[in-house]
Design a protein that fits this description.
heterotrimer; A mainly alpha (94); B mainly alpha (252); C mainly alpha (252); A: 94 residues; B: 252 residues; transport (chain A); proton transmembrane transporter activity (chain A); membrane (chain A); F/V-ATP_Csub_sf (chain A); ion transport (chain A)
Chain lengths: 94, 252, 252
């Protein structure tokens, strides 16, 4: 409750200064931005790796190829989460 | 409570110049190039007749990793000519990532946008150049912008997407992937290090033993960063190989 | 209570942040130097900075920065809440000097790798692989030679065996012949002796028969003369005796 009160006080203080208000809003939304950006890629990477493990278990002789492809897929999926992270940095510090 | 103040982001990322325009990032980049050169130079000096040992073993297994793990998997036998480029890319990125966990350096050079951006720009030039060289200017752009096997009417939709993805998004995501991974790792390490320090130096004596928890996490994350440093160098290299392979041999 | 936190980082000369820690005395500015290293005496650092600009920053920039910071300090002293965050570029924007310091070492490394380090290492590896392969081939040839040798030995062995078997057969044959001959000789001798003994036995039997028939004839003629009263013809008697004897011989 104390923390909430502090936030309210801060918001009230910030309302006086638009620039500070913008900073506050950006800092608060930065966390949301990253959290939301991490959901999709998290599911996606889990799915990719799970499928890759399945494929490797079914055909161990193709494991090398599957692993390479898995890393490629992870890289492409992960890029989305990382762009979310960059947005986080931009919102928080820029 | 403990007084924990996270420093401003630039304080953990930017460094004073030692002399004009030469800061810690530059030191790491120069060191990476130097160490890479020295390793391969010493490896080349050793006798090739006997079984490789020590530094030659490291260099040869790196070469074989690039050849078997990257080139053969993505471009096949024709792509073996690209090995030196991919090898130096991999070595350089790895040696720039690894200082993030080396004591006293404690800064991955790739956590600054400049280094990944420069490398991604270079890769962009190389794969586009290779495509133009192999297929001619018109042929290359035709294969990139008008992928075969798509109904004619869909080109209105496909061409702009392909243009954006192949010309703009690729180098951007290549750079951002490396940069953001290393930056995130660095920030994580800084966070846990700060937490450990402030717990160990807490005024309230009862808090001091709890400093072991973030310290354990710090050690675990340091180990994790070893993996990330390798993995990101590998992914950057293999994506480069995929892009070059796609530009040189477009799927018909 | 206001605490001024002065930090130096990167190109920016200084950053001054005024943190309000106690709202009871909002206007009183207290320079606290006891807690952390980041909390520095407010005056000493900017003085030093203005006297000696940071080496990377262009002098004009540095001289601009200091008044800005000073102004901010003045401003913050009045309001108490304004925060002047460290200037310096966005953490995501690549910096020119770092780009330059990436391109330089990497290009040098790439060129060295492409034209000098990699070919040398690769040549060594290839020659070793070649020697290993030739050793392999040599080993194969030696193996084939050994196989041929073994085959030759086998045929020789078979020849010797055949010869031995032949000799044994021959010896056995000779032995057999010898034995046959000896047996035949002995048989012949036995047969001769038998024949001799038979001839003697026959002669004696004939002599005995003659004596018997003479005796029988005389007896018969005597009997006949007694019975008939006259002398019987000798010829008829001998003939009848011999007939009767023959009948008895054939009957017995």
């Amino acid at each position: 409750m104390e923390a909430l009160a502090k936030i309210v006080v801060k918001a009230a203080e910030a309302a006086a200064d638009p620039a500070a208000a913008k900073n506050e809003a950006a800092a608060a939304s930065a966390g949301f931005a990253y959290g939301l950006a991490a959901i999709g890629p998290g599911i996606g990477i889990g799915y990719i790796v799970g499928k890759a493990v399945e494929a490797m278990a079914r055909q161990p002789e193709a494991a090398g190829m599957v692993r390479t492809t898995m890393f490629l897929g992870i890289a492409f999926t992960e890029a989305l989460a990382l762009i979310g992270f960059v947005v986080f940095i931009l919102l928080k510090f820029a | 409570m403990i007084a924990l103040e996270f420093p401003p982001i630039n304080e953990i990322l930017r460094w004073k110049d030692l002399f004009e325009s030469f800061n810690k990032i530059s030191i790491i980049a120069v060191l990476a190039a130097t160490i890479g050169t020295v390793v391969f130079l010493l490896a080349g000096r050793q006798s090739a007749k006997t079984a490789p040992r020590g530094i030659r073993n490291i260099a040869e297994s790196t070469v074989e990793f690039i050849e078997n793990g990257v080139v053969m998997q993505t471009m096949g036998r024709d792509g073996l000519g690209w090995t030196p480029f991919l090898l130096s890319l991999f070595t350089f990125i790895y040696l720039c990532n690894v200082p993030g966990i080396i004591p006293f350096l404690q800064m991955p050079a790739t956590a600054r946008m400049a280094l990944p951006a420069a490398l991604a720009l270079m890769v962009w030039v190389v794969y586009n150049g290779a495509g133009i060289k192999h297929q001619g200017f018109g042929g290359y752009f035709k294969s990139v912008l008008f992928p075969p096997g798509v109904p004619k009417a869909l080109y209105i939709l496909v061409t702009p997407i392909e243009f954006i993805s192949a010309i703009i998004v690729r180098p951007f995501s290549l750079a951002v992937r490396l940069f953001a991974n290393m930056l995130a790792g660095h920030i994580l390490l800084v966070t846990f290090a700060l937490l450990t320090e402030s717990l160990f130096q807490a005024k309230d004596k009862i808090l001091i033993p709890f400093g072991v928890l973030p310290m354990g996490m710090l050690i675990f994350l340091t180990g994790f960063e070893v993996l990330v440093a390798f993995l990101q160098a590998y992914i950057f290299t293999i994506l480069t190989a995929v892009y070059i392979g796609g530009a040189v041999h477009p799927e018909h | 209570m206001l605490t001024a936190i002065v930090t130096r980082s990167g190109e920016a000369a200084v950053s001054v942040r005024l943190v309000q820690t106690d709202s009871a005395t909002p206007t009183e500015v207290v320079v606290s130097a006891e807690t952390e290293e980041t909390v520095l005496p407010t005056e000493a650092e900017p003085m030093m900075m203005s006297a000696e600009p940071v080496s990377d920053a262009v002098p004009t920039e540095a001289s601009e920065e200091v008044p800005v910071a000073a102004e901010a300090r003045a401003l913050s002293a009045e309001t108490g809440t304004v925060e002047v965050v460290d200037a310096g570029p966005n953490p995501i924007a690549p910096e020119g000097k770092e780009l330059m310091w990436t391109f330089g070492p990497f290009l040098i490394f790439l060129i060295l790798m492409r034209y000098f380090l990699f070919p040398r290492l690769r040549k060594g590896m290839d020659s070793r692989y070649e020697s290993i392969r030739s050793d392999h081939d040599g080993a194969d040839a030696a193996k084939a030679d050994a196989r041929a040798e073994v085959a030759k030995y086998d045929t020789a062995l078979a020849g010797v065996r055949a010869e031995a078997a032949q000799r044994i057969d021959a010896a056995r044959q000779t032995l057999d012949q010898e034995r046959q001959r000896a047996i035949a000789e002995v048989n012949a001798r036995i047969a001769a002796k038998k024949a001799e003994a038979e001839a003697a036995a026959n002669a004696e039997r004939a002599a005995a028969q003659a004596q018997v028939s003479a005796a029988v004839t005389s007896v018969t003629s005597t009997v006949a003369s007694l019975a008939l009263g006259k002398t019987a013809d000798a010829g008829v008697v001998s003939q009848a005796v011999s007939e009767a004897m023959q009948n008895a011989g054939s009957r017995s």
